[in-house]
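We examine the record.

___
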Amino acid sequence: MLPFKGASRRTAVLEGVGLVILGFWNNGIFDNTDGVLEVILRTLQARATPLPPKPSP
C-alpha cells in the first residue's frame, strides 16, 4: 500500500516515463542503511546499459 492519496497516480506517471520508484521506510534507512544501499545498487545495475566504445584517436 502506498503511503498517501495520489501516490499510486504519481508512481504511474513516473514509471510511464521510465523511472523506477523505490520506497523505504525512514526507520529502514536508519536501521539498515547497508541493505537499502544494496537495493539501490542492484536496481541501478539491473537497469544499466553499457557505454558505447570510445572511438580510436
Remarks:
- Helices lie at 7-16, 26-31, 33-47.
- The mean pLDDT is 88.
